[in-house]
Write a structure and sequence with these properties.
The protein is 26% helix and 28% strand. The protein contains 19 helices and 28 strands. Helix 4 runs antiparallel to helix 5, helix 8 crosses helix 9 and helix 8 crosses helix 11. The protein starts with a strand and ends with a helix.
Length: 656
């Protein structure tokens, strides 16, 4: 039995970890993880295969989708003799997962290395804001738009700002964003941080050594409990006495613990306490405020960061066993330096010091008044229709991070779509936590979620496209949303009725940021470029004409399939003449450019093409012709195709 949650192609060395075995912590980005259970976190890896079913919209599943790695369930794989043998001798394996199932094959060292060379990509680009020029907080209901806010308050808070532009949308009360200014002032108390990151173990060390330095000995022993792990820790500590910075961090609570336990500067404490108290003065002081991580290295193109950071509850007037505003926020800041987040950024070749931690604050969703929770993905499809996938669970049993129990705790799964012109609800599976033939979310609630999700996605797409030239604008989009069904009286001190609240939105779109600046400048829609499998330039010379056509094919496994996996998409054409062409009225040096928006039809072959333009008809191949207005010109031509980029998936498809 096979269930594919994220299709894809990859290669790596299978690493089988059975129930109760250690080893996940040492996983590498080249490992195909084969696990007996669903992990609490997803380390860098090439693919994830579990022998038990997963929740399709869990953080693990969404993170795998964001990274673009195959993620699937295959019953009994940890008892499969072939996979066991591959794991024991570190065989290099190519793997493909599709809706039809999975296939794999052994690769030679040369084949594997050739594929690896195609994986080198540009790191995601950040645009850090100057923290000194920012206010302490921003009212998201009246603040700047999403794109402007991202460097100031981080991805999660900026995405929340976009939610507020959706009419008739119910969101948590009085959302407030803490800018990166307070984080920067807090981190200024650790002036040695930059030097720390330039030496061992952050340069040249192991993930295990970095874990020890970031989280401290106690957390290390919990994560790495074997005698060999203990010996490795002692060997590392022998090189770093307690009097050294690394030795002190590793023997204590690590960099994370130090950042969390160090009181913020007094002016930061006063500013945040005043802002939070004022913003939430209309609700009961006993109501916890949830301070949610909102890193600027999160929800940017090329780096999703789902589930990497920590959210913490604080109180304006805390009881002895409760965190204050400053304590809660410091813990959120500290989570930026958590080992999983650090390794994820490291694998993406990101500069850790370019990122910062903003915070999103709103009333906490209290378990006792949480009737249901849901994770949704809403997609605008190529034909303009919409698809909403909903995973919902009763009460406060989480969907994003479900309990790891046996039998499995599985959510209700539903699909709502308007592909046929009418909105249709498909009940795909029932929650394991409600009586038979009952639903966590009613049909009316699903239809309401569909309507608001379509509005959110439409507004998000318009915002993204407003920053792009016309010929680079997207037509498809997939967002990840989270919702809570809250009972009356939430938050405390209000008379709010029961309501279905949207608490988060982030993009799940693949990234075009991996391409060089030259390829990113091509006149191709951003969503097509992000899903490219091969990019070509076809050069045709028909003296005195020189023509360059840029085209691309797309990956059919990248959701949604944009339909250019076989027939290339013609992105742009440039034609120049180095001598006069009287028939067309062209002078020497004439040059003209068209984009795909100027083309009414196109047919592109290996070494020829035919384009119908608004003002011309152009054919290039063994024979070239240009019809412009009432004039026509023709000549013999010589065309040569150049592959500007080919995806690693194309290589593996050919191999398999």
């Amino acid at each position: 039995e096979v269930e594919v949650y994220n299709p894809g192609l990859t290669a790596g060395r299978p690493r089988m970890i059975r129930f109760g075995e250690a080893g996940l912590e040492d996983a590498r980005s080249t490992d195909i993880l084969v696990l007996d259970e669903i992990p609490d976190y997803l380390p860098p890896c090439a693919a994830l295969i579990t022998s038990v079913p997963q929740t399709p919209l869990s953080h693990i599943s969404l993170l795998a989708r964001s990274r673009g790695i195959p993620n699937l369930y295959m019953a009994g794989i940890t008892a499969d003799a072939q996979w066991d043998a591959w794991s024991r001798v570190s065989t290099r394996v190519a793997l493909e997962a599709t809706d039809e199932g999975m296939r794999a094959g052994i690769m030679t060292r040369d084949e594997y290395n050739q594929w690896r060379s195609l994986l080198e990509v540009e790191p995601p680009q950040l645009q850090p804001a100057d923290p000194a020029g920012l206010p302490w907080t921003i009212d998201l209901e009246t603040g700047p738009g999403m794109l402007e806010l991202r460097p100031q308050v981080g991805g999660k808070a900026a995405g929340f700002r976009q939610l507020l532009d959706t009419p008739d949308l119910d969101v948590p009360d009085a959302p407030l964003a803490l800018t990166v200014r307070s984080y920067a002032d807090h981190m200024a108390q650790f002036p040695w941080l930059q030097d720390l990151l330039t030496g061992r173990p952050f340069q040249g060390g192991s993930a295990r050594q970095r874990y020890l330095t970031l989280s401290g000995r106690e957390a290390y022993d919990e994560r790495y409990p074997s005698p060999q792990d203990t010996s490795a820790a002692l060997e590392f500590l022998a090189d770093y006495p307690e009097s050294t910075l690394i030795g002190s961090l590793a023997r204590g609570s690590g960099l994370v613990g130090l950042v969390a336990s160090t009181p913020p500067p007094e002016d930061v404490v006063v500013a945040l306490q005043e802002a939070v108290s004022t913003r939430f003065s209309h609700i009961d002081e006993r109501q916890g405020i949830r301070f949610r991580s909102s890193s600027t290295v999160e929800d940017v193109e090329g780096f999703n960061g789902a589930g990497l950071y920590t959210s913490v509850t604080g109180y304006r007037q805390p009881e002895p066993d409760q965190r204050s505003v400053a304590q809660a926020v410091a813990e959120v800041w500290a989570s930026y330096w958590g080992p999983e987040a650090f390794e994820e950024r490291r694998s993406a070749n990101m500069d850790h010091l370019e990122g910062a931690m903003g915070v999103l604050a709103h009333p906490r969703f209290d378990n006792e008044v949480e009737l249901a929770n849901a994770v949704l993905t809403i997609s605008i499809l190529p034909d303009g229709s919409h698809e909403l996938l909903v995973n919902a669970q009763a009460g406060s049993i989480p969907v994003a991070n479900p309990p790891t129990t046996c039998p499995a705790v599985l959510p209700e799964q539903s699909r709502v779509h308007d592909t046929t012109g009418e909105v249709v609800i498909e009940r795909m599976s029932q929650s394991t936590e409600v009586p038979t033939e009952t639903f966590v979310l009613s049909d009316a609630q699903l239809l309401s979620l569909f309507d608001v999700s379509v509005s959110i996605a439409t507004g998000w797409l318009q915002t993204e496209n407003a920053a792009l030239a016309d010929h680079r604008q997207r037509s498809v989009l997939t967002l990840d949303l989270e919702a809570r069904h809250m009972d009356s009286g939430w938050p405390l001190g209000t008379e709010a009725p029961p309501r279905l609240v949207i608490k988060q939105s982030r993009s799940l779109e693949p990234s075009a940021s991996r391409f060089s600046a030259t390829l990113q400048s091509l006149p191709a829609p951003r969503d097509l470029l992000a899903r490219a499998a091969r990019i070509r330039r076809l050069d045709c010379v028909a003296p005195p004409v020189v023509a360059h056509l840029w085209s691309l094919t797309t990956d059919p496994l990248s959701f949604p399939d944009l339909g250019y996996s076989e027939t290339p998409f013609a992105a742009g054409l440039q034609i120049s003449a180095d001598a006069p062409i009287p028939d067309l009225g062209w002078e020497a040096g004439h040059s003209q450019t068209w984009t795909h928006l100027d083309m009414t039809s196109s047919t592109v072959a290996e070494t020829s093409y035919e384009l119908e333009l608004a003002d011309a008809h152009i054919v290039m191949g063994p024979e070239a012709s240009i019809v412009l207005g009432g004039a026509e010109w023709s000549a013999s031509a010589d065309c040569t195709a150049h592959v500007l980029w080919a995806s690693p998936d194309s290589f593996l498809t050919d191999f398999l």
